[in-house]
Design brief:
The chain is an alpha/beta fold and 164 residues long. Helix content is 34%, strand content 15%. The chain has a five-stranded parallel sheet with strand order 2-1-3-4-5, sandwiched between helices. The longest helix has 10 residues. The termini are far apart.
Protein backbone atom coordinates (compact mmCIF):
# COMPACT_ATOMS: atom_id res chain seq x y z
CA UNK A 1 0.00 0.00 0.00
CA UNK A 2 1.09 3.54 -0.70
CA UNK A 3 1.21 6.14 2.07
CA UNK A 4 -2.26 7.35 1.16
CA UNK A 5 -3.81 3.93 1.74
CA UNK A 6 -4.29 3.43 -1.99
CA UNK A 7 -2.74 0.22 -3.32
CA UNK A 8 0.46 0.81 -5.25
CA UNK A 9 0.17 -0.39 -8.82
CA UNK A 10 3.41 -0.67 -10.72
CA UNK A 11 3.30 -0.90 -14.46
CA UNK A 12 6.03 -1.70 -16.95
CA UNK A 13 6.12 2.01 -17.79
CA UNK A 14 7.34 2.64 -14.24
CA UNK A 15 10.57 0.88 -15.19
CA UNK A 16 11.61 2.08 -18.66
CA UNK A 17 15.04 0.38 -18.36
CA UNK A 18 13.30 -3.01 -18.38
CA UNK A 19 11.44 -2.41 -21.61
CA UNK A 20 12.76 -4.71 -24.30
CA UNK A 21 11.20 -2.97 -27.25
CA UNK A 22 12.80 -0.16 -29.14
CA UNK A 23 10.86 3.13 -29.13
CA UNK A 24 8.78 3.79 -32.21
CA UNK A 25 9.80 6.39 -34.74
CA UNK A 26 7.50 9.38 -34.61
CA UNK A 27 5.91 10.97 -37.67
CA UNK A 28 4.12 14.28 -37.13
CA UNK A 29 1.40 15.33 -39.56
CA UNK A 30 -0.45 18.67 -39.64
CA UNK A 31 -3.53 19.03 -41.83
CA UNK A 32 -6.83 20.79 -41.25
CA UNK A 33 -8.74 18.10 -43.17
CA UNK A 34 -9.68 15.20 -40.82
CA UNK A 35 -10.13 12.83 -43.78
CA UNK A 36 -6.59 13.52 -44.98
CA UNK A 37 -5.26 12.93 -41.46
CA UNK A 38 -7.06 9.57 -41.41
CA UNK A 39 -5.66 8.75 -44.85
CA UNK A 40 -2.08 9.25 -43.67
CA UNK A 41 -2.69 7.24 -40.50
CA UNK A 42 -4.05 4.41 -42.66
CA UNK A 43 -1.08 4.72 -44.99
CA UNK A 44 1.27 3.97 -42.09
CA UNK A 45 -0.86 1.07 -40.76
CA UNK A 46 1.52 -1.60 -42.13
CA UNK A 47 4.36 0.07 -40.18
CA UNK A 48 2.68 0.39 -36.78
CA UNK A 49 5.29 -1.84 -35.09
CA UNK A 50 7.92 0.78 -35.86
CA UNK A 51 6.06 4.05 -36.47
CA UNK A 52 3.59 6.18 -34.55
CA UNK A 53 1.78 8.96 -36.43
CA UNK A 54 0.74 11.97 -34.35
CA UNK A 55 -1.64 14.38 -36.07
CA UNK A 56 -2.45 18.05 -35.61
CA UNK A 57 -5.29 20.17 -37.08
CA UNK A 58 -2.88 22.96 -38.06
CA UNK A 59 0.75 23.99 -37.92
CA UNK A 60 0.54 26.07 -34.76
CA UNK A 61 -0.27 23.09 -32.53
CA UNK A 62 2.49 21.01 -34.18
CA UNK A 63 5.05 23.74 -33.43
CA UNK A 64 3.79 24.02 -29.83
CA UNK A 65 4.16 20.25 -29.46
CA UNK A 66 7.77 20.41 -30.70
CA UNK A 67 8.66 23.35 -28.47
CA UNK A 68 7.34 21.47 -25.42
CA UNK A 69 8.93 18.13 -26.31
CA UNK A 70 11.29 17.14 -23.47
CA UNK A 71 14.94 16.72 -24.40
CA UNK A 72 14.93 13.05 -23.40
CA UNK A 73 12.19 12.30 -25.97
CA UNK A 74 13.43 11.52 -29.45
CA UNK A 75 12.82 14.02 -32.22
CA UNK A 76 10.37 12.98 -34.94
CA UNK A 77 11.82 11.07 -37.87
CA UNK A 78 9.55 12.94 -40.29
CA UNK A 79 7.18 15.93 -40.33
CA UNK A 80 4.42 16.07 -42.94
CA UNK A 81 2.69 19.40 -43.56
CA UNK A 82 -0.31 20.40 -45.60
CA UNK A 83 0.29 23.81 -47.18
CA UNK A 84 -3.16 25.39 -46.78
CA UNK A 85 -4.13 25.42 -43.10
CA UNK A 86 -5.58 28.02 -40.72
CA UNK A 87 -3.56 29.80 -38.01
CA UNK A 88 -0.09 28.69 -39.16
CA UNK A 89 -0.03 27.28 -42.69
CA UNK A 90 2.45 24.69 -43.93
CA UNK A 91 4.89 27.22 -45.40
CA UNK A 92 5.01 29.24 -42.16
CA UNK A 93 5.28 26.08 -40.11
CA UNK A 94 8.20 24.83 -42.21
CA UNK A 95 10.01 28.16 -41.88
CA UNK A 96 9.53 28.23 -38.11
CA UNK A 97 10.50 24.58 -37.76
CA UNK A 98 13.78 25.24 -39.60
CA UNK A 99 14.54 27.92 -36.99
CA UNK A 100 14.29 25.46 -34.07
CA UNK A 101 17.81 24.22 -33.31
CA UNK A 102 16.77 20.74 -32.22
CA UNK A 103 14.40 20.17 -35.15
CA UNK A 104 15.93 22.24 -37.94
CA UNK A 105 17.32 19.19 -39.73
CA UNK A 106 14.31 16.89 -39.29
CA UNK A 107 13.05 15.71 -42.69
CA UNK A 108 9.90 17.56 -43.76
CA UNK A 109 7.49 16.87 -46.61
CA UNK A 110 4.91 19.32 -47.88
CA UNK A 111 1.89 17.13 -48.70
CA UNK A 112 -0.61 19.13 -50.67
CA UNK A 113 -3.18 19.24 -53.43
CA UNK A 114 -1.08 21.98 -55.07
CA UNK A 115 1.04 21.17 -58.07
CA UNK A 116 2.20 24.76 -58.51
CA UNK A 117 5.89 25.20 -59.40
CA UNK A 118 6.31 27.98 -56.80
CA UNK A 119 5.19 25.56 -54.04
CA UNK A 120 7.72 22.96 -55.19
CA UNK A 121 10.41 25.63 -55.30
CA UNK A 122 9.50 26.80 -51.79
CA UNK A 123 9.89 23.22 -50.51
CA UNK A 124 13.25 22.85 -52.27
CA UNK A 125 14.55 26.16 -50.85
CA UNK A 126 13.67 24.98 -47.33
CA UNK A 127 15.17 21.52 -47.76
CA UNK A 128 11.79 19.78 -47.75
CA UNK A 129 10.19 17.17 -49.92
CA UNK A 130 7.07 17.86 -51.94
CA UNK A 131 4.35 15.27 -52.56
CA UNK A 132 1.02 15.94 -54.24
CA UNK A 133 -1.90 14.35 -52.41
CA UNK A 134 -3.30 11.30 -54.21
CA UNK A 135 -6.65 11.48 -55.89
CA UNK A 136 -7.56 7.95 -54.86
CA UNK A 137 -6.80 5.38 -52.20
CA UNK A 138 -5.01 3.15 -54.72
CA UNK A 139 -1.99 5.48 -54.60
CA UNK A 140 -1.69 5.15 -50.83
CA UNK A 141 1.13 2.60 -50.75
CA UNK A 142 3.20 4.62 -53.24
CA UNK A 143 2.71 7.78 -51.19
CA UNK A 144 3.75 6.00 -47.99
CA UNK A 145 6.93 4.76 -49.65
CA UNK A 146 7.60 8.35 -50.77
CA UNK A 147 7.15 9.61 -47.20
CA UNK A 148 9.52 6.97 -45.87
CA UNK A 149 12.10 7.81 -48.53
CA UNK A 150 12.57 11.21 -46.85
CA UNK A 151 13.67 9.66 -43.54
CA UNK A 152 17.32 9.03 -42.76
CA UNK A 153 18.76 5.62 -43.75
CA UNK A 154 18.66 4.14 -40.24
CA UNK A 155 15.00 5.04 -39.83
CA UNK A 156 14.14 3.81 -43.34
CA UNK A 157 15.69 0.42 -42.60
CA UNK A 158 13.87 0.15 -39.28
CA UNK A 159 10.50 1.18 -40.74
CA UNK A 160 10.79 -1.12 -43.73
CA UNK A 161 11.09 -4.11 -41.40
CA UNK A 162 7.29 -3.90 -41.17
CA UNK A 163 6.68 -7.62 -41.23
CA UNK A 164 9.44 -8.69 -38.86
Amino acid sequence: MGRTGIPLILSSTSFPMIQSTEPKSIVLYADDDPEDRELVIEAFDPYTHHVEVITFPEGKSLLEYLRRLPLHVQAPCLVILDINMPLVNGRECLQQLRQLDRFGSVPVVLFTTSSMPHDREFARRHNAGFITKPTGITELERITEEFISHCNDEIKEKIQQKFI
